[in-house]
Amino acid sequence: MAPHFVFPRTLQDLEEESPEHNHLFVQNPHNIDSLSSSQLEEFVKGVSFDLSDREILCIEEQDVFDRVYSLVRSYASLPRSSKLNLVETLRSNLAVLLPNVDSLSRVSNDNDHVLLVDRVASHRNAFKIYTFFLLNIVLAEESNNAPKVVAASARKKQPAHSWNWEPQRARILNLIANSLEINLELLFGSSDPDEGYLSFITKNAFSMFENAGLLKDSDAKDAICRIIGACSTKYHYTAQSSASIIHLIHKYDFVVIHMADAVAGAEKRYSNGSLATSIVREIGRTNPKDYVKDTVGAENVGRFLVELADRIPKLISTNIGILVPHFGGESYKIRNALVAVLGKLISKAFKDIDGEVSSKSIRLRTKQAMLEILLERCRDVSAYTRSRVLQVWGELCEEHSISIGLWNEVAEVAAGRLEDKSAIVRKSALNLLIMLLQHNPFGPQLRIASFEATLNLYKKKLRELEPSEVSDNENSNPDGEVEDLKFEDVEKEQQESVTDTFLSQEEDAIPLQNASDSSVPDVGNLEQTRALVASLEAGLRFSKCIEATMPTLVQLMASSSATDVENTILLLMRCKQFQIDGSEECLRKMLPLAFSQDKSIYEAVENAFNTIYIRKNPMETAKNLLSLATDSNIGDLAALEFIVGTLVSKGDISSSTISSLWDFFCFNVGGTTAEQSRGALSVLCMVAKTSTGVLGSHLQDIIDIGFGRWSKVDPLLARTACLAIERLSEDDKAKLLANNNSVRIFGILESLVTGFWLPANIWYAAADKAITALYAIHPTPETIAADMIKKSLSSVFKDCGCSDIDTSSSMPITVQVEKLSRCLFVISHTAMNQLVYIESCARKIQKQKLAKEKKDIENQSSDSNGTSTGTQKDNDINAELGFAASEDAALDAMFDKAEKEIVSGGSNEMNLVGICATFLAKLCRNFGLLQKYPELQASAMLALCRLMIIDADFCDANLQLLFTVVENAHSEIVRSNCTIALGDLAVRFPNLLEPWTERMYARLQDPCVSVRKNAVLVLSHLILNDMMKVKGYINEMAMRLEDEDERISSLAKLFFLELSKKGNNPIYNLLPDILSKLSKQNLSNDSFCHIMQFLIASIKKDRQMEALVEKLCNRFSGVTDVRQWEHISYCLSQLSFTEKGMKKLIDLFKTYEHALSEDSVMENFRNILNKAKKFAKLELKTCIEEFEDKLNKFHMEKKEQEITARNAQIHQQKIDSREGFNVDTNSDDKAKSNSASDEADGEVIDTYSEETNTLSINVKSESKPVPEACSSATSELIESDQVDIEVQSPMVKTRGAPRSRIKKSNVKVGKGDISITKKRANGSRR
């Protein structure tokens, strides 16, 4: 019998003789490398022939064993054909050997027992040797096939006889896996093979798992998984395998899924979950702190658990209790994984609820506990975990794994998470709400009124069905929450038929419109009715929950995160689909987002608009668009115009939709109102911006309807008609002027401006558009404008017998305020349009001039005959002499003169507007008159501002007046208008407004909210567009960050965010100045902290942070105020410290050491150090700890110095008081000696009272205040001696009282203790 084969640690160990002589080892190895190719080929063929021709057990023969070993040892150097020959021989022999092992059981009854034992030993030896050599070949081949960088040409050249290793590898591994599935008990004598065999197999199998390329071969991977499963489960090699699996999972992320396949495959193949259980328990026993350090391992372990839960949910559900304690760990990745595991288990582990009642109850309780954990984890400290929980709830919702009883709880949690501080959590919450709406079991319509009406009817029906003895009991509490109901039954009923819940869902009007009709469809018996009522109550609660989120969704649409905006729009679209109350109003608030610079947000708005408002039916589309136009404010209309223009250019708004809009405008659609007609015309005006020829075809309809009888019904229709005329294309304007109809249009527009047939609240808007339309279509608008101004003036002054404004007359004039206000509006708006008209004319002339020059250049270049040589010479001469430049200068001078003549005039004679401007300036200075008429003041100041914008001289003359009004006017409307006008003036005349910058910033402190808001908007516009330099008053804008009005605070935050994006972040340079000025303001400490925290957060660059450390530390040097120390140190604590910044802070210790005596300053420095320790490396952390000790030591020394200084001061005060007392005592002695005769006569009272008064005055004037520290002791001494002093004669010294006691008593008197003085006086009298 051959010696036993024992698995060595390495292949080369077979050459070493074992101490136990009965072990097989290599005795005569062959040097393969020394053989020639022909000899090597013959050698391989000889080995192959012996293995094939002789018995398969010949491998254990020493000669064959040595030769095979020699070939395997030098396998890498073998040619491909030899490799193939060797591999095929070994593999086929092992394949033949496996059935022979099973045949051993059939000869087990042989009488020759010794022969059987030898045969089994030989089979065992051969089995182990074949397995050993084959696995070593696999390992050698894989090490040779490691990925290498090979040229493309080299990869293509493959010899014709080359072999493909991947199929061979799969065959070998499958063969070894099959060998583990036979009855190895016959070979090894027990159910488990020996330790060496299993160790060798599993060790090499796990080493192959480290090869990512091998795992891509599905056949090879499946074979390895079978090997691991068999060794671990069938042969109880569980502990070692689970340790290896966990090690690989921690080390390589690509093995996670494949390991899960192996573990799950073992459980299914052998119906034994011991391997999975062992791994789960090992993970559960791991210290949670270990996962904090090993983040990659934590992520891999988490993924592995999720994959296992997906594959074998029932097994994991029985062991989930081992993992639950890890919810208390610090690693959020493990918590994320456990949350996902719970989601998989809830959706898969409890589907079949068959079985005994007790086991069913346990499983339901387990499921309920998991759901409660998921709800609890929604409040996890980590945003990543909160987000993952919400995602899991969305997956459960999609798989219909949430019961109706839990539906509202999940919805309320998701609604609450909409206000989470983390964007990823808000995104997950929005997606969850979308899922809840999409898969809701309550029906396709979720209107609250519908639910309430249906619920009331079925509640009434339920009361009729209930027995009289339980009629008083209610199934729901007053809040509408469902109690004691079988939600599983309700859910089942809902899933069977949603229409059972809403039997009249498509006819919701029945219960709403005909409430008196109490007949409802019969749904069955009492229990079914109760279930239906419970379902309706749950649906009503769900609708109210979604409806309550609308204000939050509006806020999210203004979020700086694009994902917030996009998902909010998607949720609102889903809400509108299910008819949630308030969703349509919220969707309209998304229109201004069309101006967003973020492309994704704009695309989301455009897609939502297309989905909601653009229909296949043109009439429906037209109705949707005109409804939007009539109900929108100015901002929404601007956004709607932008979106409509885009859709028209893309063809999404078709010509049939435009025709439908004309039908609505012309009242061709039955039931059309004047408001709808106006809305249709507004949309057509929007379309005309892109498609210019839309309005010309219906010009007559615009005139007849817009200015006809319908304008009396809806006065805004006239304003919209003016806008339509203004937007006529150039061709339509030319046709209009060629037509006699133009005179009629001019007359209508003029009568609208000068007449009084429109209400006052509509007239201003209509007159604005009418004047603009006249300037757009009239060939000489200045003539008709002059007529309008004259008519307006005559309408004002005709009642007092004056035909014009006589500025020289001092006679009082009585006019109507409304007429004068309208006249001032016409004058100022006409002047403004005249300025715009002059500028447009200038642009046209410049454009024509450029076109002519371009044409001349083209003609000169195309002329090849030389006929234009003279012209070219003339042009060259003109260019050299500068005639072209002088021509441009002449044009500019002409335009400037035309602009100047609008208000000031170019000669001594003042023009029409100039005369009115003089009157207007005098009127605005009459504060007493204007205070009586606030409406007139608003119109006058608005007109004055417009004229100031037109003319620089007029502006300069009235700037003082404007700032006086903006500061002192009682009307907030006037102050708001003037604030806005200041912004326009700063753009037009920046040099004139520059000296008034501080006064402009002062508007930020106005008591009125609207004025402050406009001031923030104006200054933001000027600064962000580089029209105003950021002066030293920016601290006023910073204070608006803590404004009591949330809108103003938000605008200020937006300003600083945009400012931080400009250039090199100006906030970095402004911060020290803002800090200095805010410290001097009367700001609360919380407000200061919030402002500086926000500003510092906008600084992102490390270099700027490091520079700020130095700047702020240096500010300590020149500051003695404790409050400023606290502020500077707080700002330092808000900086993001880098290693360089921390070293700067340590180096600048001398600059702030004097401030460390304050506890608040010290606390801020401690916060800095605590933050720095989190990112610091070992070396820096040591420096920080030393610095912290230094700070603490210095702080304590400073505190002790303060206490010592305070005690010294108290001592000095005592000494000063004693010296004062000695002086007073000497004067007392003299007074007493002089009054000895008075004492003898018994006249003591007056003398003593005089002494007392003198003493108190002297002490008060000479001594310093006694500190509180010694005041109590002083008072005690005085009180103890008070009685003695009162009963004694004025000769106090004769009592022998201690000097210190007398001194203290006098000090007390000197402090003004009047009661003691009076008692002494009374005592002396007695």
TrEMBL record:
Composition-biased stretches (Basic and acidic residues): 1213-1232
Swiss-Prot/TrEMBL GO biological process terms: cell division; meiotic chromosome condensation; mitotic chromosome condensation
Ranges of Basic residues composition bias in the record: 1296-1306, 1317-1326
Composition bias type Polar residues, residue spans: 859-872
GO molecular function: histone binding
SUPFAM superfamilies in UniProt: ARM repeat
UniProt keyword annotation of Manganese present: no
Gene Ontology CC terms, in alphabetical order: condensed chromosome, centromeric region; condensin complex; nucleus
Condensin complex subunit 1 N-terminal domain: residues covered: 82-239
Broad class of where this protein is predominantly found: nucleus
Subcellular location: Chromosome; Nucleus
Primary role: Regulatory subunit of the condensin complex, a complex required for conversion of interphase chromatin into mitotic-like condense chromosomes. The condensin complex probably introduces positive supercoils into relaxed DNA in the presence of type I topoisomerases and converts nicked DNA into positive knotted forms in the presence of type II topoisomerases.
Family statement drawn from the similarity comment of this UniProt entry: Belongs to the CND1 (condensin subunit 1) family.
Protein name per Swiss-Prot or TrEMBL: Condensin-1 complex subunit CAP-D2
Source organism of this protein record: Cicer arietinum (Chickpea)
